Amino acid sequence: MRFAYETDRGPVTAVDGVDLTVREGEVVALVGHNGSGKTTLAKHFNGLHEADEGSVSYRGRPVPEYGMGEIGREVGYVFQNPDHQIFAETVWEEVAFGPKNFGLEGPELDRRVERALETVELDGLDDADPFAFSKGQRQRVALAGILATDPEVIVFDEPTTGLDATQQRQFMDLVAKLNREEGVTVVMVTHDMGTVARYAPRTVVMRDGAVVDDLPTRELFGDGAALAEYDLVPPHPAACANAVRGDEPTALTAEELATALGGTDALADAEPVGDTASATTEGEGR
Ligand SMILES: Nc1ncnc2c1ncn2[C@@H]1O[C@H](COP(=O)(O)OP(=O)(O)OP(=O)(O)O)[C@@H](O)[C@H]1O
């Protein structure tokens, strides 16, 4: 597929020649430099963009054929900045907006909202003003708003940007639980290699609008040549493991590294997500 933005200076091609299949129940990371086309591609998954050439299909049917409401119910998109999504004056109104739009009302709507708020651990805060929340809490409100629509797929654009290490871990553990327990398919655009290593078994690497690699994350982080070629910095546990492991597969997390070195979980416990906070392709702040 191909997509170009129309600008004053003419069309800017953002994605070109991408051929990608995401399977049900997967967690896939989309990585690559700034401007490589990750967000543009991701926005095709729920119809926020429509391909100029080729097409993007969901369950075998082209996304544009679904209509916005229909595809929105299947594929939720969580924006990088929750404030691009949040608009209501109370948490309840915010989370109820999606399912209300899809025609839910009464006790069924209440149940959906309560369940979504429980999942993100914001239950009991129905009347709170989401704009008075921390960034991490707003991110969770935004996620609850998507969860309340009961999607099959969730697309996250930089899900942990602006969250501290603990909030990052909490947010991503929640996402992992949705995948594990409810079978939600997850596609996440991220620069955070620690998050990729810990949560996404498959990584798609983009460059200049194209997919240049698509491989198991463990393979990517164990392959020095590929990491150098794509200019990706592996998370610390993988870097350490690569330095000492010989022919063994690399470690992706501190826990795995500790086990590989014959240690105990104590080492892992000592290092919560320091690796995820620093091991990005671009350094802090992204
Ligand atoms: N609204 C827009 N108008 C014109 N060009 C755009 C627009 N949004 C993105 N682009 C261009 O499309 C290309 C791909 O951008 P995109 O945001 O998809 O990349 P990305 O990999 O998600 O980048 P980042 O990591 O910085 O979020 C870039 O060249 C970018 O400048």
UniProtKB/TrEMBL annotation:
SUPFAM superfamilies: P-loop containing nucleoside triphosphate hydrolases. It is found in: Cell membrane. InterPro entries: AAA+_ATPase, ABC_transporter-like_ATP-bd, ABC_transporter-like_CS, ABC_transpr_CbiO/EcfA_su, ECF_ABC_transporter_ATP-bd, P-loop_NTPase. Pfam families: ABC_tran. Residues 262-286 are annotated as: Disordered. Residues 277-286 have a biased composition (Polar residues). Keywords: ATP-binding, Cell membrane, Membrane, Nucleotide-binding, Translocase, Transport. Coiled coil: none annotated. Residues 1-233 form the ABC transporter domain. GO terms for cellular component: ATP-binding cassette (ABC) transporter complex. Its main location: membrane. GO terms for molecular function: ATP binding; ATP hydrolysis activity; ATPase-coupled transmembrane transporter activity. Probably part of an ABC transporter complex. Responsible for energy coupling to the transport system. PANTHER family: ABC TRANSPORTER ATP-BINDING PROTEIN MA_1418-RELATED (PTHR43553:SF21), HEAVY METAL TRANSPORTER (PTHR43553). Belongs to the ABC transporter superfamily. This is Putative ABC transporter ATP-binding protein. It comes from Halolamina pelagica.
